[in-house]
Structures are given as C-alpha cells and as structure tokens.
Write a structure and sequence with these properties.
The complex is a heterodimer. Chain A is of the alpha/beta class. Chain A contains 25 helices and 21 strands. The termini of chain A are far apart. Chain B is of the alpha+beta class. Chain B has a four-stranded mixed sheet with strand order 2-1-3-4, covered by helices on one side. Chain B starts with a helix and ends with a helix.
Amino acid sequence: MSNGNTAISIDSIRLNSLEDLNTLRQNIIDKHDPNKPEVLICHGTGCIANGSVEVIDAFKKICADADIDAKIMPGIKATGCQGLCSKGPLVLIKPQGLFYQKVKASDVEDIIQKTIIKNEPVERLLYKDPKTGKPIKTEEEIPYYSLQKRVILKNIGKIDPTSIHDKIAVGGYQALAKALKTMTPEEVVTEVANSGLRGRGGAGFPTGRKWQGALKAVEKKGGPVYVVVNGDEGDPGAFMDCAIMEGDPHAVLEGLILGAYALGANKGYLYIRAEYPLAVKHLEMAMEQARAHGLLGDNILNSGFSFDAQINRGAGAFVCGESTALFTSIEGKAGTPRPKYVRSVEEGLWGNPTVLNNVETWANIPLIIKKGADWYSSIGTPKSTGTKVFCLVGKVNNVGLVEVPMGTPITKIVDEIGGGIPSGKPFKAVQTGGPSGGCIPNKLKDTPMDFDSLTDAGAMMGSGAMIVMDEHDCVVDIGRYFLRFLEEESCGKCIPCRLGLTKMREILDNFSAGKGKIEDIETLQSLAKAIQDGALCALGTSAPNPCLTTIKFFKDEYLAHINDQKCPAGVCKELITYSIDPDACTGCRSCARLCPENCITGKKKEPHVINADKCIRCGICLETCKFDAVQVN
Amino acid sequence: MDHQVEAIDEILEHYPEEPEFLIFLLQDIQSAYGFISKESMQMVSDYTGVPITQAYSVATFYQSFRLEPIGEHELRVCLGTACHLKGGQRIVEELERKLNIKAGETTEDMMYTLDTVNCVGACALAPVLLADEKYETNITASKIKKILKKIESK
C-alpha cells in the first residue's frame, strides 16, 4: 500500500548545483497529482496530547482495509503544528482544503466515506463561526487564520516535516543554492543587515549587526567561528520554537547553513531543550537527509564550502537559554553564565567568535535571502521588521500559534484572532515575554506588539508567549509564580539574583498570606533595582519585570492584599474561604465525595455545608460542582 | 555489582573520550536506566577525564538528571504559566495527598515518582499531566482518581 508519504524515496541523490536542485524539485512536483486527495493530520505536541496519533493510525488502517479506487486513495501525512491547538486534533483535506477540528479516530470512517469517496464535507467536524454558528469549510475563511500573516508558519502543518522532498517541493534550500551560486558571504551578511531582522529570542538585537560583530572579531583574532541555534525555549507558555523545529526543521537548518556560509563557519551546534524529543528527532532526520543530498557536510552543492552541525540536547536548566550559559553547557559543563564585558560574538564557544541566534531568527534567514531585504522590511514596523510568531495561551478562546506582522496591536491578537476570553468580558491583562516580561493591562490593549513598544510599557517581547489573564487571575499570584520559577532556575552564581529573588518572593508570599506591610512595596522596588543593576546575566536583570509591571498597573490589587487582607481575584488561598450557596446546591454529593478533608456535609438532595475550619481551600469542590453552587469569598 | 555498569561500555563507545561529551553520556545512561548510579558516574568520569566532583556538579546542576532510582511510573505535572493559571498547582497538591509523597519524591513501594515540569508545550489543554509518556489533559481532581486506577490496573 502506498500511503503517499513515501511516494519518492530518499536515496542519497547528491545535488551538485542550483540546477540539480531545480530538477529534483520539478520531478517531485511532476510526480505529485494535485487533484488526488491528501489527508494532513496535525502531529504537533498539542494535537498529539489530544489523540492525533490514534487518528493517524485510524486513517492508515481504514484506507488499507476499505475498497477505495486507486485514483482517489488518499496520501496520509503527519504534519507539524497546524496552529489552532484548542480545536485539535486538526485534519486538513486536500484538494478541497477542508478544515476539520476535534477529529477522533471514530470520525475517520465518515471522513473516508463522505469526503474522500463522495466529495462531501462532514458537517459536524467543520469549524463553526462563534458568532453566527455557521459552519466554515476552509482554513482561509476562518478568522483565526485569515487575520494572520503566516510567513514562518507557512509550510508548517502543510508539509511532512520528516521528508526533505516535501520541503524541496515548496522551495526549500532555494535560498542556500542561490546564495552559494550568486552571492558572496559579505553580500549575505549585508542582505540580513538591510532586512532589519532583530533576534527573536528576547532582547531584539539586530541580527546583521551581530554577524558583523563576529566577522570583525575573526578579523582581529582569527577563527574558527561557530554558528549556534538556541532551541532552549524555556519560557513557560511558549512553544513556537518547538513548533518550528518539529514542523519545518529544514527551515532552521537552511538558515543555519546560510549563516555559516556568511560567516565562514565550518561547524555549528543546535542546542535543543530536553523536553522537546520530537524536535530533536525531526532535526536529526533533516540533517541526515540534507547530508545525503549534498546540502550539509563536505563541499555543499559542489561550491567548495563545507559545513556540518551537531545537536546538543539540553538537560533542563532555564538559564542555558542565556548565551554564555548555553556555550558553557555545550562545552559539557554546568551552564552558568559569565560576565559579558567581552561579548559572546567575540568570545563564545571555546573562547572563539560565535554567533548564537534563536530558532525563529534562523528560520527567517532563508526567506530574507530568497525574497530580499526590501520585501522583508516592508513587513512590520520600521524598527521591528518582519513577522513574529506568538503563542496565544491562557484564558482565551482560540489557543494556539499566531503569526502577525510586528507592531500588530495586542487587542487584534487577543480579541480578534484569539476570539476574546471565554467569559466574553474584556481580558484583564496579557503577560508577554514570560519570566522576563511583564503584564500589560487591558487599558493598554492598543499597544503594538513590537520590541520597543513593549519595552516602553515595562514588558518585553521575550520569545513570544502571550498569556491572557481574566478577572479570576491574581496579579500578586502571577508575580509570585514567576519569581518562584526564576528563584528555582537561578544558577546561584551571582548574589543579586540568588538572594534578591528569594527575598522578593518572600515579600510576595507575605502579601498573598495577608501579612504584607505597605512599606514592603518600596522594599520590593528597591530590591528590584539592585537585581536589575547587579545581576550577572539577563535571567537576573529582567527577573523583576513581571512583579514591577503588576505593581505599576495593578497597585490597587496589591493594596487590597495588604490593607484589607483580600484577594479580589479569589486566588490567594489564605485570603479566601469557600462556601456553598444553599439555593444553587442540589445535594448531588459530588463535592463531598471528592473533598480530601471530608469537610463537606449534608444529606443527599439537600444543600450541603463546608466546614470552614477544616477546609484547606484545595478548590476541588469548586472545580467539581456542575451547578455553580460553590462560592469563593 | 551495579547492573548499570555491565552494559555501560556500549554507551561509552558512542562518544570520543572528551570532556565535552559528559552531558551526552549522562543523558544516554539515564535514558537507559532511569537514573545515574555512583559506579556509572565514576566510569563516565574516568572515560571523559572530567574529575568526579565536576561530573557530580554537572549532574546536580541540571534538573533532568537523577541520582536515585525512580518509581515504576513517572507522573509529571506541568506547571507552565497556562497550567498554573488553570490550576496545575492544585493537581500537584492532590497527587501529593493521594500518593502521600511530595513532588520530587518516590513512593516507598517504588510505584510512583511525582515531579513537576516547567512547560510541555501543550498549553491549549491545560492543566496537563504526563503519566509516563501519555498526556492527560484538562485534568481535574476527579480525573486523577481515574488515572491512578488506570495505571494500577495495568
């Protein structure tokens, strides 16, 4: 049986020129019948967690067993993240472009019978417009997708990430072949510099300038020079780099090879977070295939340029996302940062000039080389060019990957693309930039998402997590959450970070226990200043941001904790009590059965009561009650 | 003798005898055995030329390394931001009560190890629990009971 995935086997067909690449591409395209059905099943982490592997197996099995005419036997592809994670598992049917959501293995038979054989949509699996309830057939018509500008994500979810031929068919390695044939390394650097691309890892340093800095260092002290991919995406709530590595690994690899050519590097490293085994696997496969095709390794495309790379798996340390800590980790040591009086482009890996860029930054490079700096800088704002991929998560209707031009206002991303928050009310705040970023309140919802506007608001672009909060989320609690996170992840090398963060967290612990004093706010701010000024690396200097922005924008909520011993959002355990509304309680006993302290009493079918003295405020009753009878006071 | 030591040569010979491969070796040993024993740490140290004190420092610096055997089933609760907002901490506490251990510990009968993780990238389905390699999504307290039952009935 052919499942379409392996229609063209990957023999070691070494390519020796741009012409060879074009011939192969044409062969792949010619062999592919665009009218033949194709089933693309999302195999991103979110959909896998939702059961997409079972869906893929069901398609394979049912197609093999069913009596389907060879002409319409569908190709079955497991793709990277298709984006709308909250509606997964997602399935895309070509050639019609039908978009099916929340597909279960038990739906597959229907899809085969109706859509593949009879060319009719399965109505119940179509996306419904939340306002009108009308079904929408294709991805392009769904506002979540139509309002985005998907450049980096363009092929993710459309190609099989384990097939280099799928990638070559959509133009993969064209930029590399073009650069090797028609551009000098200097021209590649200039093109990247002119594009205005800024690093997607957090701080937004201009990529071209970083590369030029490395070249100057090489001139001064000689090589070798290394190129490194930072795939240690540690921000909780961020998974865009994961999705890029899993869904389009060749884009990252092509970018890295281009960077190596531009900088004269012969060795590169991909440092990938321990929790992303699928990303490691797909990149390993991509590298193997690229080597077999003469796109990686000795004498790439017969150009005389040689470059190879290796993958280093992270071992679970957030601080290793910091450049010097990452280099130390690649060297096989405990990943602690060093002071950066000398920048890492001059003294990086093993003391040599090193260019470290984030996954998304590298994935932008082939686009810039292929389409030109002018095209690239026409997207976004003058100072933040191009697009940015965000992870829209938290209390928002459409959770998933969103790519928009830099400078898109927060409200467009959260309220239009994200479809607002589940309760229908305005969102309370959006946390951007993870543990280094800040909370932006609803009143600043028109803030454009670009590097400088976010820094002006006291937040940070970070790697691109956008966590939407509603009125049930407490800002003191979120401040504590990030401080505790960073306290645990602090490497302990410098005192401001090691002790300062603990002290800040202890003050917030007191606030959430109703033991805060008004002067503590000033202490927090002065501690924050000391950490910002004195910490060794960006983990420390940016660590106070979440706490400081919440004080700046939500001071009333802090004061409620301090002065009134109240948590307005109903989150801080020591400031709340639970009770049961006797009018709403049906006496179903669900909560009483699950209460770990056995402190809910009452007769069946009669209103129940919580014994406040014994209650540990675990929240299980609140979560269990189907009648909204449990109240937080 | 430690059972890890017997097959460790096979892991060692995958890599050159260089200090930079220390982390690779520790990762491979851990994925084969679930933890790194004292004896295998000594062998890695001898092989790579990294002093044992430094190897120990590396193994304790990174969160993913374990120096003690883990339980038969590993429960990892995601505490990424989205999971935190949707009650991930409540899930940890409920599991701590049910298993009578703290996060980071293993039950006495070596059945369960309970841990937390900083984000598994499945934020749309928060809160998430990784029970061995299986994702359990939109977790609630009542689901925990069922999940433990399911694991135990296997």
